[in-house]
Amino acid sequence: MFIPLSDTPNPPGRGYITWALIAANIFIYLLLTLPASMSRPDLHDPVLLEYLQMVGLYGKVSARQVYNSVSAYDLLILKYGFRPGVFDPLTLLTSLFLHGGFMHLAGNMLFLFIFGDNVEFRLGRFRYLLVYLLCGVASTLFFALFAGDSQVPLIGASGAISGVLGCYFLWYPRNRVRCFLFLFPFIMTSIYLSARLVLGFYLLIDNLVPFLFASSATSGVAYGAHIGGFLTGLAVAGIADQYYRLRLQLKGKPAKAEGSLASLQQICPAVGRGDLAGAADCYLGLLDRDERLQVDSADVLVVGNFMLEKGRFPEALHVFRRFISERQNDERIDQAYLGAGKAMLQQPRYQTSAYHYFLSALDLARSEQLAAEARMQLRLIEKHRTPEG
């Protein structure tokens, strides 16, 4: 058995929405779950009667005996958890923030903490929050397809988090996950595994197999919700990628007007004199995007690489980043990713970002030489970098 502990590399910046979701779940647990779990239900609460009717009073079991085993939190779950047999749209959301106990909460938040920040970085904060909630709702509805008229409430953030894992699975195939491996008492150690291996194991072994051959009613685990969330995350990531590619195709390369500038030499005569320093300063002074796009991409890369050679790393990074953002469908974009990674590598706080740029260069490489250089840079980072959680 293994437990994920951290992933590498991590994106630049902070995953504020991921942190906010973790904080919200913990806050609700401390504010509602714990106090209500230790409290007796109100005898005048109409939900109590509904609970007793749902449980059913048969044989020698008295209402008093059932009441003594019920907590106020049981009624809270009945009211705000999702019950397939009593469809309430509000509970599609409220159920995502309720948990059955500390271990249930801790497991979910661990997975969200490890994998959420990368997906948030890829989607952006607002879209990430929408995707999180969408996956949560979709996972609950997927669960309901197989639950019939069940009155047993479904609670927990695991369906939404499974959606995050589905996005991660598709978008970060080269990432690695540090896991605690234990086969007590023989093996207890930490190892690095492929992210796809870890998440594939989660989907297939931890959820699909039990879903097909075990019962959620006896295990207490909503395997269907986990599978539904993961598949929704995969679909969202795939559609997002296709939309992005389609947008680039429709946008196309900017058309050059008749007599437009076609090379940096025509904009900056310094190039013709072999004055690359002057050419670099000239290019950096082009504030208009359309004017920059008239410059041949090969000339832009010459400028970026010249700055790298001269140790002007922030300026080189600026050039390569602009190339990447403005020329997404350029055939030389793999060189821009490689150059950006090299520029970041010279700044310690950008080590993680450099790793991502080298991965992109490797994925987009149009020559074996560039791919080999990207792999070499990745190995150097992995050798000297301390992984983050």
From TrEMBL:
GO terms for cellular component: membrane. InterPro entries: Peptidase_S54_rhomboid_dom, Rhomboid-like_sf, Rhomboid_protease_S54, TPR-like_helical_dom_sf. Belongs to the peptidase S54 family. Keywords: Hydrolase, Membrane, Transmembrane, Transmembrane helix. This is Rhomboid family protein. It is found in: Membrane. It is a multi-pass membrane protein. The chain crosses the membrane at residues 16-38, 96-116, 128-148, 154-172, 179-205, 225-244.
